[in-house]
Amino acid sequence: MKPHLTFLGKELVERIVAEARTVLAELGVEIHNADLLTMLGEQGVRVDPKTKRAFLNDTVVDRALGSAPSSFKLYDVTGAETHDFSGDNVHFTPGSAAINVLDHKAGKIRPPTTADFVKYVKLVSRLDHLASQSTAFIPADVHQNISDSYRLYLSLMFGTKPVVTGTFTIDAFNVMRDLQLAVRGDEAALTEKPLTVFSCCPTAPLKWSDVTSQNVVDCARYGIPVEYISMPLSGFVAPVTLVGSLVQHTAETLSGVVISQLARPGTPVLYGGSPAIFDVRYETTPMGAVETMMIDCAFSEIGKHLGLPTQAYISLSDAKRLDAQAGLETSMGATLAALAGINSVSGPGMLDFESCISLEKLVVDNEICGMTQRLTRGIEPRDDFPSLQLFQELLKEQHLLISKHTRRHLRAEHYFPGPVIDRANRARWQEEGGLTLGERAHREVERLVGEYEPSPLADDTRNELTKLMSAEARRYGMDSLPHSEL
Questions:
Q1: What 8-state DSSP symbol labels residue 369?
Q2: ∠ at Cα 176 (175, 181), nearest 5°?
Q3: CA distance linking residue 191 with residue 180, whole number of Å
Q4: pLDDT (tens digit per residue) in 199-233
Q5: Distance CA 339, CA 375 (A)
Q6: pLDDT tens-digit readout, 178-189
Q7: What are the structural domain ranges in the chain?
């Protein structure tokens, strides 16, 4: 039996969805994109040009939900399947997009560089429990106008796994699309085997900016999957109650579904988000708060009720170091996410309210992900019945270390973490150096990066990627790309 967690129940889910539908129909959603408002109007949506509001009635919402796929898959740069976003399948990806990296040797945060990003991509390629990479942080050594496309470029050049990404500008989308086409070959191949998921974020409350709404439309036109990252802040720009925040989250996310599906029916989507409560004592948005995690699991329950695969920013920490708080918050989030069956879990590696990433934390979080994936497989009999013969062997031998039953089922039943997790007795731990968690994690980062194997991309594909990225860099006064110097 596989364990499963729910917070709402069918009746409460239906009431929340009904309230969100009323909000969308009566109050509407504000959209700062004239072309999108025109498109919505042409498809029967009531639009008020003066207030820039679109009023989405049940007919429009039902049509969108009817065309949105109930599942989809992702593929790596070679075209191999890596993700199946269906049922309660759970996949982990690093969080994004941080503006700082925690430098282990200096013990301080600092702006990231291209070298940091390349090292990150190489590390993620070796972490088995992270199914995808993300454009996790923003290198400070390139022009800000190419930072989005540059992160995707580095991810495709040095990594193999699919990429969770996004853009803060409209112009960057075109080169990010072309980078994917360079890998896949043409639009049909990219649609057939998606390589990325783009994060698209409405603004609380009930608003879409020009840039973000255009990203949703652009992704739809090319069949690129999107995850909607609604971010209600309970008690600040959302009702203080968890149910009230869920109503807002549902309305904002449904509006994104409508935009995608009216732009191109059948566009793959993840019903996602990054909500948080607002801690009035510190004026912060704690991602590690238990109420934040409860909202995440609950909105995933709503997404599944609507027939959509789900995503959430969970399994991360607000701690400033790789410490007990970081482990507590991350492991609690990962466990709840796995038990709730959230299909795409974003967050490993992140600290300090999503503003900082730590490579050492990433290898620890990889083990947390592995443990939770073992948890979701549950408990089931494996040649355990009848039991008499097995216990006769135990009584005779006084152990079962080398029995056929043990050898057959050991790896499936027991999860063995890597060296970052200490399971040695004290004497052995001291003999091996008495390392702290941070020291073991740093050693593991260096080992895994040292074992990196280059991506199998063909040389002509690499050349095309570099040609596209170099041309984009020259638009902003950069004669060369920093990674070429590594």
A1: H
A2: 90
A3: 11
A4: 999 999 999 999 999 999 999 999 999 999 999 99
A5: 8
A6: 999 999 999 999
A7: 1-380+417-486
